[in-house]
Amino acid sequence: MNKSAYIKLVKGSAQTDVTLADVKELLVRYQHMTSLTGQQLDWDYQAAAFPYTIEEQEQDGVPYLVLKGTETHLYRGLVIGVSQEEDSGIPYVQLVLPEQATHGDLAKGNEFSKYIAKQLKGELHLFNGRIIYYNPRK
Predict the structure, then answer these.
(1) In a 3-state reduction of DSSP, which class is residue 65?
(2) Tally of structural domains, the chain
(3) How far apart are CA 112 and CA 116, in angstroms?
(4) What is the pLDDT of residues 10-45, one digit of tens each?
(5) Domain assignment present for 101
(6) 84-115 as b/e, with b when 16 or more CB fall inside 10 Å?
(7) Are 129 and 22 in contact (CB under 8 A)?
(8) CA–CA separation, 132 vs 113, rounded Å?
């Protein structure tokens, strides 16, 4: 697949900058929320809602998160990084579907990117090129 989704922190976003630690914290919070839902349902909802392990890696001095699928026949993985646009300096979070990604990874990537964008009140550029605005536009 090898596609990317972007969450840009434009004017009106909840934060003016984002770090990889911020993104990891949001993913851990997402896992916690789904585990609480699972307790209410008396079902291991977290395993279905977040079928990945989170690993921090670095390549050429650039840190990133790798979400590795726990059920490899359905979910293989996602890669998440943070950076800034060169021309405008706008910070963004990038979610990448690697070549071996499945349709399950695409669906989870959309789900996670929407959650992160909503929390950061950012501008979400989905894998298919469509844009969702989670910030108040003035």
Answers:
(1) strand
(2) 1
(3) 6
(4) 887 788 899 999 999 999 999 999 999 999 999 989
(5) yes
(6) eeeeeebbbbbbbbeeebbeebbebbbebbbe
(7) no
(8) 10
Question: What are the backbone dihedrals phi and psi of residue 104, each rounded to the nearest 5 degrees, phi first?
Answer: -65, -40
Domain of residue 51 covers 3-130
pTM to 2 decimals?
A: 0.93
* pLDDT tens, position by position, 72-81: 889 999 999 9
Residue 9's CATH number: 3.30.310
Structure tokens at 107: 């669906």
- 91: amino acid identity, one letter: P
Does residue 136 form part of some domain?
no
44 Cβ neighbours under 8 A, 6+ residues apart:
38
Percentage of the chain lying above the pLDDT 70 cut: 97
Within a domain: 113:
yes
51, 71 contact by CB (below 8 A) = yes
Residue 58 belongs to a domain: yes
- Which tokens go with 101? 């990604």
